[in-house]
Amino acid sequence: MNTAVETYINGLFTNLPSTAELERARRELLQMSEDKYEELIAAGVSPNEATGRVITEFGNLDELADALGIRQALDDAGDAETIPVVGREEAERSLRESRNTGILIGGGVFIIMLAIAGFAWLGGGNEYVWAQAGLFAIIAIAIGMFIVSAFVQPTASRFSNHEIMLDPRTKDEYKLRGERSNWKFATGLVTGIGLLVLALVPTVVLREADSYHSAGAAFLAVAGLGVAVLIVNGVSRGGLTTLIESGPPKPEDKIEERTDTRIGLVASVYWPFMVMIYLAWSFIWSAWHISWILFPIAGVGFAVVATSMYAVANWKRTNA
Q1: Collapsing DSSP states into helix, strand and coil, what is residue 13?
Q2: Are residues 144 and 234 both part of a single domain?
Q3: By residue range, what is the domain housing residue 146?
Q4: Which residues form a coiled coil (predicted)?
Q5: Average pLDDT in the chain
Q6: N or C: which end of the chain has fewer CB within 10 A?
Q7: Is residue 101 located within the same domain as residue 232?
Q8: Cα dihedral 206, 212, 218, 223 in deg (nearest 10)
């Protein structure tokens, strides 16, 4: 394919929504342009002249809309706000921001779980004043990490808010990268989930040895690492998905964004509340040996709530 023709054709679709229908039309038009270009070259036309003829024949998307079956999509996009197009430099910056965000959030969760595990291993109790002070200091540090994570992804936020988008050619490159990195994402999932399952092993073994405090501490430490791996893996993958799906917002995007916002609001209340219950239960009743069980139960409960909310959103999107 002639690079100039490919760039021109891709540019015709730059500010159009990223839908399967328009993607099909883009690829079809690219194939038609390539066939015409090769036909002209075979007929002895110079590359420059062939390029000009192809662009002249296929360069007006409005004239080709009916033939490509995208008239309605083109008309609907006509009133849409033009979104600035960016390239690989901004995309790589966005990916770095997503990775850093995942590390901050996952690291914050891990050090909280590790601090609680250490306190549980000591057996809790009011006699460990220095340990209590250390626990709350670490929680404060983790909260700081969470807050910072919200401000370290300006470029990624612009992509997710549909303020900027990738040009079609660069987007195709990241789609291919996404397909090639599926194994990496799957490995992260298996590792994180595996750690969550393995967290039960030392718990059972240590409880059999009547080491209840150590059992709770071991569970929290290993499970915390598993959660951190899942968060880093998920946020990094989400950053790549955001690039691939960048473009003018689609109607279903609004439903998904509202659902994500609602789940985020629920999580912002739910998890601090669970931590408060855990600390109150542990401190007031000296239940460090058993209070850790609250977290797996809370995790399952939140998963049920989040899954239900996504199911409702998918139903609304399907029946919209």
Answers
A1: coil
A2: yes
A3: 85-249
A4: none
A5: 80
A6: C
A7: yes
A8: 110
Q: Tell me which residue has tokens 């992804």.
A: 153
Are residues 214 and 222 in contact, defined by beta-carbon separation less than 8 angstroms?
A: no
83-95 pLDDT tens trace: 788 888 999 999 9
The CB-based long-range contact list for 51-54 (8 Å cut-off, 24+ gap) reads: 51/2, 51/4, 51/5, 54/2, 54/5
List of residues 6+ apart from 119 with CB closer than 8 A: 128, 131, 132, 135, 288
Q: Which of 98, 74, 79 shows the shortest CA–CA distance to 244?
A: 98
How many beta carbons lie within 10 A of that of residue 217, not counting itself?
A: 26
pLDDT in tens, 286-307: 777 677 778 778 877 887 887 7
Same domain, 15 and 143: no
- Structure confidence by residue, pLDDT tens digits, 127-163: 566 777 777 888 888 888 888 888 888 888 888 887 8
Q: Which residues lie closer than 8 Å to 230 by C-beta, 6 or more apart?
A: 106, 188, 189, 192, 193
Note whether 78 and 15 are within 8 A (CB). Answer: no
Same domain, 117 and 137: yes
What distance in Å separates the CA atoms of residue 131 and residue 129, rounded to the nearest whole number? 5
pLDDT digits (tens, 9 = 90+) for 168-190: 788 888 888 988 888 998 999 89
CB under 8 Å to 201, separation ≥6 — which residues?
none
Q: Which residue has the tokens 């394919």?
A: 1
- Yes or no: say if 229 and 111 are a contact pair by the CB < 8 Å rule: no
Region of 69 on the Ramachandran plot (φ > 0 left; ψ -120 to 50 alpha; else beta): left
- Asked if 130 and 241 sit in the same domain, the reply is yes
* Number of domains, the chain: 3
